[in-house]
Amino acid sequence: MAAFEGAANPQRAIENGYYIEQPGRSLAETIAARIALRPSSTHILVGGIGSGKTTQLLVTRDRINEIGDIKAIYVDVSLYTDIFKIKPLSLMAITGLVLSELIGDSEGQDIEKSRALFHKLAYGFSENKDILGSAVNLNRVVRHRGVLVDKPDNPRAVFQAMTKLQEAATTAQKSITLLFDGLDRLDDAQIFSQLVTSDIQSISESGIGVVLVTPLIVAYSDYRGTIEQAVQSFEYQSCFDVFEDANAYNFFEKVIKTRAANDFIQEPAIQNLIVYSGGVLRDLISLTEAAIEEAYLLDSDKVYENHVEAAVIPFARAKSLGLSYKEREILWDLSEEGKFNPTTKEGIKLLAAHHIIEYRYPERRFLIHPVIQPLFQHEQITYEEEEEITDEDVPF
């Protein structure tokens, strides 16, 4: 069970030897090579939820650190601020905090002042000020807003303080690269575009390289062109077409067999798990974990096809809950007529959650996730009939 824990930190899977190289050249290899050539360059990594972006980011960090003269640091943005309240200057503030931690207990009065100042700029502070002209000794409390809390009072000071910390941090390291994770949960492409064109460019100009995980909405928004022009590379982590690509299928098979004891999961069960995963890495892991649980509850020493089938039922039910009527219409169109245009908010949401899976190799195509595909193989309901629909009419 522990080997297939879907909610586990990907770092732990890597440390346990469960990481399997993707077929072909992985994004980790590609981005690490680009950073090696240009240490202060900026790179975007985009993909849907559960497509393996965090794992690729962690492997990228390890590959960069193997170079020797570049220090790569993985940064979970959600540990510093609320993702949904993020705004321009937020990533610069987080960069300053990371650099403060990197410097540690370095000696030097100027460094200590810069660290203290940056914490104030990031989180805000209060001070007592005398009231001028008062006949008695009076003062008032003045509150200064921090970048990660509210709109800052002095944006320029944030960049100046970060630059001083960067200079101190690079005295022991030739170069620094930050790998920001967590922003793929941000659902505002405009805010993300502002982060790239302001924060990321400023961080890069200070001599720091950046790799940034982004929300899938960015790949289909009107801001994509602006974002691509502001960075050195824009990489897409797509799902694996286990139906049309033999290498992708073999990759998923190896993921299961690396984590499971010999012959523990029977071959037909492995085949079903790969098919039901739809080529989504996280779904493969989660479904396998659920199938192992079903086998345990039925007092079985091995995982068979019937255990996989039992695990798929609640998985499909959970995946189909909360779909809006418009999202269902999109799924029906794709199922019945093979039509899908990923330009609407609903369509992008279905892609991000892998209700609809996008493959890029061996050819670009869209597929309804296999576990919910059977729910949409029936006569399409029109918008005019919407008011008459009852719970019994909807297959989920």
TrEMBL record:
Organism placement in taxonomy: Bacteria, Bacillati, Cyanobacteriota, Cyanophyceae, Spirulinales
Domain of life, source organism: Bacteria
Stated name of the protein: Uncharacterized protein
InterPro entries (UniProt xref): P-loop_NTPase
